[in-house]
Write a structure and sequence with these properties.
181 residues, 7 helices, mainly alpha, 2 domains
Length: 181
């Protein structure tokens, strides 16, 4: 059998450059950086989608005083009283509600808890002038935040718990002090 020389068209060209090296494996830091970038993009897209999907929902702002509370015990010591008589009486009434409890629908309930008016009445200790001035300042404080309130008992009985009424009593004490009452 005759041997033939390979034809020039069938011969493989000899590469003059080297083949590209396979890609090196990424380090842990590089992989974490890429994952972080991808997650950031996904979170930003989710935030935009959330804003679009909830834009039609009306939301009332949350008052942090309703959220942040501290546990109260009957041994809670009264604060240093304001030097003015109405402010000090309102502050004592507030402390009475904190330690003795708050109620609605009655001046004093069977467990001894009091409403706003009941605590002011008790702390005025029979001084009608002090009591009426304290109730007036409390109504002023209430009307700064709430409209359509006719009386302290009406305001008090409009709540299921005493957080807001007690906060208003505390604000009334601050207001009375600022007015020098």
């Amino acid at each position: 059998m005759p041997t033939h020389a390979p034809s020039p068209a069938l011969t493989q060209p000899v590469p003059t450059t080297q083949a590209a090296a396979p890609p090196a494996e990424l380090s842990l830091e590089e992989r974490l950086a890429f994952t972080n970038a991808a997650m950031t993009v996904r979170l930003e897209e989710a935030a935009v989608a959330y804003e679009v999907n909830t834009a039609h929902i009306d939301v009332e702002p949350v008052d942090l005083a309703d959220v942040l509370t501290v546990p109260l015990t009957p041994a809670l010591q009264p604060p240093t009283l304001y030097p003015t008589p109405v402010a000090a009486m309102l502050q004592r009434a507030h402390h009475r509600l904190l330690t003795g409890g708050w109620c609605s629908g009655a001046l004093v309930d069977v467990e001894g808890a009091r409403c706003l008016y009941g605590s002011i009445h008790a702390e005025a200790r029979g001084d009608q002038n002090l009591e009426s001035r304290g109730l007036q300042v409390l109504m002023d404080a209430i009307r700064r935040k709430f409209t359509g309130v006719d009386s302290v008992p009406f305001f008090n009985d409009g709540f299921a718990n005493g957080r807001i009424p007690m906060r208003m009593l505390d604000q009334a004490a601050d207001l009375a002090h600022a007015r020098g009452l």
